[in-house]
Every structure is written in structure tokens, then in C-alpha cells.
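quick one, two chains, predict together pls
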Amino acid sequence: MKKHLLLSAIAVISLISCNNEATTVNTLESMKTPQMENFNKAFKSLGDPQNRPTEEEKQRNTSELSDRRKALLVPASKELILSTGVTEAELTRKTGGDMSQTIVWATQIYMQKSDEIRKNLKSEK
Amino acid sequence: MKKFLLLLGICAVSSAYAQGGTLIIQNLTTNYDFHGNIYANNNTGGGCYPIVTSKDPDPIIVPAGVTAKYENYRDQYFSSGFPVSTWNVYLGAGSPVSPRPWNHGSLVPGGIISNNTKWSMSKFQMYHAGTSVPETYFNGDIGGTAAPCNTAPDVVTTAWGSAKWFTITSGTDVYTYLIIQ
């Protein structure tokens, strides 16, 4: 009898655990923070018709993103930086309002966060 | 010896030139894996040489929705989620290919190849996520457009998705972005 109870307990526990398994299958996509998603969206928006390079921008012999298009990445970059606990004042002081510096900083944060997510996913498996 | 002199010459021409920063590959698609090789070359002298290309893995695979980063030929080996263990180095037109490991002296930051090359382009083919089935026409060569060495377009547009390539320079830090969406 004891054995039966034990067995059924194990069965129940393993059923529950299997059930949890299914509901906690996390993907990189689902673990991205809203700020990370907005950062992705901003980069995507560079492909919108009104945001594509103008004829003049195409003529430049450089791959550097134009200031007009950098400006499209700044709000999401700021949002991502602030989400780490950095204050507006620190952000302004560190970047001096420089768009490139802001975007590069946000990119570093993005990579750090996605590395963390990737490591967590790996350790779950 | 000649080659060595040539290399020395290249360095003299471009002494203030270092493997400028990080390459970011953002695969923003939801249903395609990126399969591609990445290239770097000299764009200021030496007839566009040396050229460095990713050799192992061949190709690099960045899954749908994932971003990969390559700081430089060496450090990416530990910091990238999709590291390259061997690079192919081409020193000049007609010279044999020289496969070199990620920690080869010429490839480390400050090394002679590292100092004289920049991320320049990628040849890629998109595959249906998690499969070995290519999306036949979602592919291309894409890269920086700074003449004269970089000739691939900086935008690839197909019916299945598009890709773009650009840099953002912050001080001496050059971030190169390849975005696929």
C-alpha cells in the first residue's frame, strides 16, 4: 500500500513537472524586455518608405548612417538605457546629447541583455 | 620578403587605421535563419588587401530573432554567441589563402591584419527557420559602399525580406550594423 502511494505520488509529481515544462518553454523572443523590442522596432523602421535614404544621402561616399536616420533610433535607445536604472541626468552627462554615442551605448546594453537571456535559456535546458 | 614589404607599405599608408570596432548582425526576421559569411578588408591601400573572411563555421548561422556580435577577430571567440574559430586571410591578389585561428598573432587587436582591415561585407542566404531549406531568392551580397574596395550594395530588397548595412561612429568607436528584416 505504502509503495502504491509513493508510486502514485511520484507519478503525480512528474506529471506536474512535465506540465510546467510545457508552460515555461521560453524563447529568446518572449524573454526580450519591451525596451529591447522597441529597440528592434526602431531599427526596422529605417526600412519604412519615408525613412529610406534620400538620393542625396545615397550619393555620399560613406556607410555612416545619416543624422536624419540616426535620429529615428535615438528615442528607443534612450528608453533602453534608462531601463537599466541610468537617470536622465547621467544619460545627458555621459553622451552630451550625441546621437551616435547614445545608439552605441544602447547597442552594448542590448547585446549584454540578450547574452544574459541566451545563457539563461542554455542553463534551463 | 616582397610580401612582407608590401604589408609594411600597407601599414605605412594606413597606420591610423585599426579594425574599427564591432560588427552587429541583427536578424529581425521571425521565420528565417541567417546563413552567411562575413568579410573584412583594407579600404585605404594595398589594392583592397588583406581580405579576411569567416571560415569556420561556414556559414555562420544566426537564428531568427537573434542578434550576433563580433568585436574583433579574437575577442568574438569568447563574447559572441556565434563565434568564428578560423578566419581565412588573403594577403594579395593571387596569393594563396591562409587559414588562421582566432588567436593568431596577426589577428589579435594591434596585430598587423587586425590593424589594416575593417568589416566590409557579408554574403548571405536566408533559410526557413530551423531547417536546411533555403528561401531561394532571399539572399545577396551586402556591405559598406565606401569606394573603391567595397562594391556590394548596402541594401538588399526581396519579396521575402530585406537587409541593410551601415555604420554608426561614436568617437573612435565604429559600430557596423547588418540588419535583416
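The mean pLDDT of chain A is 86.
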